[in-house]
Amino acid sequence: MHPYLRVEHQLLRDGAAFSSVHEKMVYLLLQSYAGRDGLAFPSHQTLADAVPCGKTTVKNCLQTLVEKGWIEKVERFDRHGGQTSNGYRIRMVSPVTSGQDPGQETATGQPSVASEEKGVKKPSLKKEPPPPGVMEILTHFETEIGRVTPSIRRKLEALLKETSPAVLHHAIEQASAANIRNFNYIQVVIDSLKQRNLLTQEQIDTHEKRRRNAVTRSPRRKKHGKLPDWVERERQQQQQAEAEQKQRFEQTVPDQGELALLLAELI
């Protein structure tokens, strides 16, 4: 490993390429840990200690770097097929350096790939920015439900376009409160909110308040009407049978006088 890291002036001085100084530091640290193939796999705690920041900040920075096309997430598995910690590969042509001349070195210190034919414009590697609020949704989902797979991510982004962040946050909270960590349950909650046209946080809060008030006002037990005649007859017969059984029992039990005689004979 080289004792130093070569970083382009343009990358270092650009204040608009990264969302925060934490994001820039995480990217530079990944370059520092990357091998010849551009793959780096430091732990979240290692990056958090080096920035320095919290592990949650590191996770958010890695997610946004993947979204912007700076790095590529690589899933790693052990020899038994079990998944281990993820690795991250530095893109050979980053969004900042994609316009440089062939033969120039990238921020990783490796030459960029030249076009086969001069003048042929390379396709842009920069991805479309995620919809507003999607990062908060993904973080909330991972915290309360579980891992966000590419399929779940696409579904969440589609739902976000159809509804609102408030709807998705509410559905995730409902699934967590019910201890049903399943995307299908979240989908059912969202469908229910859409049918009621509850698409904003204010509408959801108003609906929940009305529902709680209705439960509070409702009587705990409904009064029944007059019982049928046969029910009353059955009740009276049961009471009479119990009274007769009690009388027979009392007749078989000796009174105080009888008990005194029995004790005297025993003595």
Give structural notes.
- The protein has 267 residues and is mainly alpha-helical.
- Helix content is 53%, strand content 4%.
- It contains eleven helices and three strands, in the order H-H-E-H-H-E-E-H-H-H-H-H-H-H.
- A three-stranded antiparallel β-sheet has the order 1-3-2.
- The radius of gyration is 36 Å and the shape is elongated.
- Belongs to the DnaB/DnaD family.
- Low-confidence segments: 96-120
Using the CA coordinates, give the radius of gyration. Answer: 36 Å
As a percent range, the share of helical residues equals 40-55%
Q: Major sheet: order of its strands?
A: 1-3-2
Which key terms come to mind for this protein?
3-stranded antiparallel beta sheet, 267 residues, Arc Repressor Mutant, subunit A, DnaD, mainly alpha, DnaB/C_C, Primosome, DnaD subunit, 53% helix
